[in-house]
Amino acid sequence: MLIKISVTDIAEKAGVGRATFYRYFKNKEEVIEFYFMHNTKEFKFEKRYYPRCKADFVKVAGSVFDKFRKNKECFRLIRRAHIEYLYLDFLNKKMTEMFQKEYPGKNLYQPYLFAGMIFNVSMAWLDNDCKEPVEQIAEMFIEPINISD
């Protein structure tokens, strides 16, 4: 079911007028992008972290999926409005930035692999109402990467 979210809906929910909305944002997609950028630190993309073993990778993945679960209602609305591509765009951008900083000269496509995995697993998990524990999703996510302990 496609739901339509208008700028008026967003402005009313935020308790501001349309003019105020447009003073800060060009369109409703920018609000979603701002939301992701505002929460970047909580998604662990800004922190310098060198995973050393499988348990470290599970911890990093778990923090991403934990944040996702805590915001599942927002993600559910994004999904119902068919604008989840904004989440994928965000993941692609942040993963690419992280890989360029942390692993310069490595495989140019690897950040997109990780971003796609996070996106697809989180969307499928959302469709199942995030019923499985975060730790189980994180373990399952890391398993195909084949990281040694």
What can you see in these coordinates?
- By secondary structure, this protein is an all-alpha fold.
- It has one domain.
- The chain has helices at about 5-15, 20-25, 30-40, 55-70, 70-80, 85-100, 110-125, 135-140.
- Helix 4 packs across helix 8 and helix 6 runs antiparallel to helix 7 (about 110-125).
- The longest helix is centred in the middle third of the chain and has 18 residues, at about 85-100.
- It is globular and about 50 Å long.
Short description:
Helices cover about 65% and strands about 0% of the residues. It is built from 8 helices and no strands. The protein is globular and about 50 Å long.
* Distance, first to last CA: 44 Å
- Number of E-state strands: 0
> Strand pairing plus helix content: what structural class?
mainly alpha
Shape: globular
Number of domains: 1
Largest sheet: none
Mean of all residue-level pLDDT scores = 84
The helix tally amounts to 8
Strand content: under 5%
Give start-end ranges of low-pLDDT stretches: none
Q: What integer value in Å does the Rg equal?
A: 17 Å
Q: Roughly how much helix do the residues carry, as a percent range?
A: 55-70%
How do the SSEs run, as a string of H and E? Answer: HHHHHHHH
Question: Topology, pairings included?
Answer:
Layout: H1 7-14, H2 18-24, H3 28-38, H4 54-70, H5 72-80, H6 85-102, H7 110-127, H8 134-142
Key descriptive features of the protein:
8 helices; 149 residues; mainly alpha; 65% helix
